[in-house]
Amino acid sequence: MVKLSVIVPFYNVQTYAPDTLRSLRANAREDFEFILVDDCSADGTPDILERARRELPGAVLVRHEQNGGLATARNTGLDAASGEYLTFLDGDDWIAPGYYEQLLGAIEGLGVDFVRTDHVQCTNRGRSVHRVPVGRRDEVLDPRDAILPADRSTSVDYAFAWAGIYHRRLADQGLLHFTHGLRTAEDRPWIWRLHREARTFAVVGLLGVFYRRGVSTSLTQIGDVRQLDFIRAFDQVIEETARDREADRLLPKAVRTYCAIISHHLGNIERFEPAVARKLRTMSAAAMRRMPQDVLKAALDSMDYERAARLRRLRRRTVAGEVAA
Fold first, then answer.
1. Which of 12, 25, 211, 214 has the fewest CB atoms within 10 Å of its CB?
2. Sign of CA dihedral 235, 12, 177, 203
């Protein structure tokens, strides 16, 4: 039986893929498998992965005939995985030797549905530790309790799928697949669903994932229309949370986070192409109209002046435009 499946999508990362694959080799075990998903790369990545298929113990190579994006590639990997436990890694990141064995030991020892971990962010030569915003470590917790409070960073804001390990029963319950076709913010509906629906989780202080920040091909560095998928992602968070049995308690957090993300993008609007910037304003205003208005008002009242003012200006311009029309 395969104990652990590691799902690793790759897309045009020929510069970084060798580091990623070397780190997987340093974590290989006879009962581990590595699901390498080539998302229709157009550079040298396919050749690198073909060599890995032959040389990396436990490697399983799956190819997409057309590019589907990270969410779709992860789903392909999930469908191909056979492990009792599952985890993710991106094709331009890497892990410390022996990390997966430690991670597996943590979830088996705690007996929870999933475990979340800290990580190291790497930018050029800089390194910084980023921690799960949960104070209680190495104990069984209710994931619903880690969603709140609304006005602080919580576990659902730490949305990195690769910062953890997940029991297969979550996949069997439909909780591990991502929304097909989302090009950015794909982790957001996923992490919210996981915290609403899973029964138990834990946070451990393992530091073994190295997240490469600032890669030129990453969507976080590109100001094109794909960035606007965050709106579809957060619309899904709002819609699903509104159907939750504790919607009144959880919606303020979902709405406030959505507003904060909109404000962030509006505050950095110069990095978008002009047509995309216009679309960002239009779609953001429409998103705010879709939110529960009483919850939206409370969220804006609770935010700092700069972010709230940016959002209120957008609302006023929209209302004025509708009146003029």
1. 214
2. negative
